[in-house]
Design brief:
The complex is a heterodimer. Chain A is of the alpha/beta class. Chain A is elongated and about 80 Å long. In chain A, the strands form 3 sheets. A 5-stranded parallel sheet of chain A has the order 2-5-8-1-9, with helices on both faces. By secondary structure, chain B is α/β, with parallel strands linked by helices. Chain B folds into 3 domains: 178 residues, no CATH class; 35 residues, no CATH class; 160 residues, Rossmann fold (3-Layer(aba) Sandwich). Chain B contains 16 helices and 9 strands. A 5-stranded parallel sheet of chain B has the order 4-3-7-8-9, covered by helices on one side. In chain B, strands 1-2 form a two-stranded antiparallel sheet. The longest helix of chain B has 15 residues. Chain B is flat and about 90 Å long. The chains are: A alpha/beta, B alpha/beta. At the A-B interface, α1, β1, α4, α8 and β9 of A face α2, α3, α9 and α10 of B.
């Protein structure tokens, strides 16, 4: 069995590996939760890469309906074709537009399906996909056909915890919560992304980063993806390490903070704290 | 095979089901865990736990099931009776090990050291590096005694040890921090939704298109309708402070459920009973009060009015002018509630206290009469009843 393991670009903890391999082996969906920016979506890319399967992405919005993942009936083109006397009009199947799950079920080789941010949709959305994800099949009402998956796809579902998911849905999934990485893991992640970063820069940046995360009352704590963006900026700007150097007591607004702090309240909070630190 | 783990989890309040247990069995059979304890722990966690706030409980139950740890809500760690330790040691030690201990200065000496160490650490014993392990009493190593999950004799540097993973209890912080239990409330509130078509016409109206195309002698005539939106409007009046303190959590849950379900949700706070003024920000309640008249003028009668309060007060606060505990009210509370319910015909009162006790409190009976019997308990069932009543 081709298992999923940490790669050069993606550092996966052992528990994540076990969870992914369990869901691949038993062909059940894997539900991944975690702080924003801890690599939930990227996981799907990496799993697809590791297994050597193509990836089909389905990004969920607040208006997404479960049906759209299966298929949609394009009535307008059929009406238009009927008017123009097109031959295609006699077969309703010509006007069934396939959704992402249909594509996945119909593929000739096993695929990985990413259902991204499932909690964005309506509260009933997961319930509408229960049978489809359990049996990996669905019925097309217009053509009276049942679509059955040729190969059960690997399904990875991510959630940001905006809505609670129904129990019936959860029971059918494996679950993994991606924790915020500790410093060692974070160093490995940085190393994986920027192998040629200067050691001292990485170390100082990491100090500042964890210091920023410690600040109480931040609305959005910077996460892995923010750190990586920031490091990239620092490398592009080629800042001297001294600009980052802070001592334990003093809080300084980090250079290029726009990559770390994402709303103005946080920036204000930070400025105020830095001001107090300078005065005190 | 692992049914005691499942039962333990269910006893600890985790919603683990047979389906998940069977999944775990299937995964074991398929060799996902590859006979390593650590992998088994990860696998069972991924299979049996579906919410990060349960992860900590899972760690504790797992520890208790497989290592003979104290059960989750066990005794406090401070005291460890000597006889108990002795007995335990006698039971576990082989003669060779006993001999080794003798060589280290005798059993009593080690016990003494153990006691000293215990006395030194009154608080949580996590991650200490000077545990007994260094002194060579490894027989204790296998026996954790502390509900916080530290075992005697376990050295911190063994960080790949399987035991350590769940003993670390990394998920402690996540226990019960996220919004909980609101799904039931959201589903109950959903019934209040009323869909109507508003805004730009973007959705194809198929029946109308076919009809007008036919009328048009087959010339295609597309008809569009606006998308359906939830148009229900809700006005929430929340009792705050005083006797409501016990129910803050419940009220918060209701509030967060209601907030995500309705586009038009307005909320105001009052204390004990609504009078001529309400407020929106409880921290600045004295500066930013809003006349109730203004609320009545601003929101039309198409809003549904929901009071949330325990209704426990002196009857004077309801019936008498000047009865309020906080200020001098010119008009009695009854006048205001009648004014509000007269304006908003669809009104209800949610009460966080249990329904059985309502009869014993005079003010609650009075409010129930004022609301024409539309008082419901603040439970999922109560909200369900209320929504049915309000959407009639």
């Amino acid at each position: 069995m081709a298992g999923f393991k940490s790669t050069e670009r993606y550092i996966a903890s052992r528990d994540l590996e076990v969870a992914v391999n369990a869901s691949v082996t038993l062909q059940r969906p894997l539900l991944v939760k975690g702080e924003p920016g801890t690599g939930k979506t990227v996981l799907a890319y990496e799993v697809a890469e590791a297994l050597g399967h193509p990836l089909i992405e389905w990004h969920i919005k607040s208006t997404t309906k479960a049906q759209q993942g299966l298929y949609e009936y394009d009535a307008v083109s059929r009406l238009r074709d009927g008017q123009l006397g097109d031959e295609r009009v006699h077969d309703i199947a010509n006007y069934i537009v396939r959704g992402k799950l249909w594509d996945a079920f119909d593929a000739d080789e096993p695929v990985v399906v990413l259902i991204d941010e499932v909690d964005k949709a309506d509260i009933e959305f997961p319930n509408d996909l229960l049978l489809e994800l359990d049996r990996m099949q669905f019925f097309v009402y217009e053509t009276r056909r049942t679509i059955v998956a040729k190969h059960r796809p690997v399904v990875i579902i991510t959630s940001n915890n905006e809505k609670e998911l129904p129990d019936a849905f959860l029971r059918r999934c494996f679950f993994h919560y991606i924790r915020f990485p500790d410093r060692d893991t974070m160093e490995r992640i940085v190393q994986a992304h920027y192998p040629d970063i200067r050691k001292d820069l990485a170390r100082e940046a990491m100090n500042v980063f964890f210091q920023v995360r410690e600040v109480p009352g931040l609305k959005k704590k910077p996460a892995t993806s923010e750190l990586l963006d920031w490091l990239k900026l620092l490398m592009v700007e080629d800042l001297p390490v001294e600009a980052l150097r802070t001592n334990e007591k003093q809080l300084v607004i980090p250079p290029l903070y726009g990559a770390l702090l994402k709303n103005e309240q946080d920036v204000h909070l930070f400025e105020r704290l830095a001001f107090l630190a300078r005065r005190g | 095979m692992f049914s005691h783990l499942i039962l333990g989890l269910r006893n600890a309040g985790l919603p683990t089901s047979i389906t998940e247990y069977l999944t775990l069995m299937a995964a074991m059979k398929a060799g996902v865990a590859e006979y390593s304890v650590e992998d088994f722990y990860y696998l069972s966690r991924a299979t049996l736990v579906k919410d990060e706030r349960h992860l900590d409980k899972f760690d504790r139950v797992f520890g208790a099931c497989f290592k003979g740890l104290e059960p989750p809500e066990g005794v406090k760690p401070q005291e460890l009776p000597e006889e108990w330790l002795l007995k335990l040691a006698e039971k576990l030690l082989t003669p060779e090990e006993m001999a080794k201990i003798e060589a280290l200065g005798g059993f009593d000496a080690i016990m003494q050291r153990l006691k000293e160490l215990l006395a030194e650490q009154k608080e949580r014993h996590q991650g200490g590096s000077k545990w007994i392990g260094t002194a060579g009493t490894s027989p204790f190593g296998a026996y954790g005694y502390n509900p916080e999950g530290v075992r005697i004799g376990q050295d911190k540097s063994r960080n790949r040890s399987a035991v350590k993973v769940w003993d670390k209890r990394d998920f402690k912080d996540l226990d019960d921090t996220v919004e909980l239990g609101t799904r039931g409330m959201k589903l109950a509130l959903r019934r209040l939704r009323r869909f109507a078509r508003q805004g730009a016409a973007t959705e194809l109206d198929l029946p109308d298109t076919i009809k007008s195309t036919a009328n048009n002698a087959g010339m295609l005539d597309l008809k569009l309708v606006p998308e359906r939106h939830n148009t229900v409007k809700v006005l929430l009046f929340l009792d705050i402070g005083g006797s409501m303190d016990d129910y803050v959590k419940l009220t918060e849950e209701l509030f967060s459920a209601a907030r995500s379900e309705f586009k038009h949700l307005e909320y105001y706070y009052f204390h004990n009973f609504p009078y001529e003024r309400v407020w929106k920000n409880n921290r600045r309640r004295h500066e930013e009060q809003i006349p109730t008249w203004q609320v009545l003028r601003t929101y039309g009668p198409d809003y549904k009015l929901i009071f949330v309060g325990d209704g426990a007060m002196s009857p004077y606060e309801i019936t008498m002018p000047g009865g309020s505990v906080e200020h001098w009210n010119e008009e009695a509370g009854t006048v205001w509630v009648e004014r509000l319910t007269g304006h908003y015909r669809r009104a209800a009162w949610l009460n966080p206290t249990p329904r059985q006790s309502w009869g014993h409190v005079r003010s609650i009976t009075m409010i129930n009469d004022l609301m024409e019997g539309r008082m419901f308990p603040l439970t999922v069932n109560g909200i369900d009843e209320m929504t049915r009543e309000l959407s009639r």
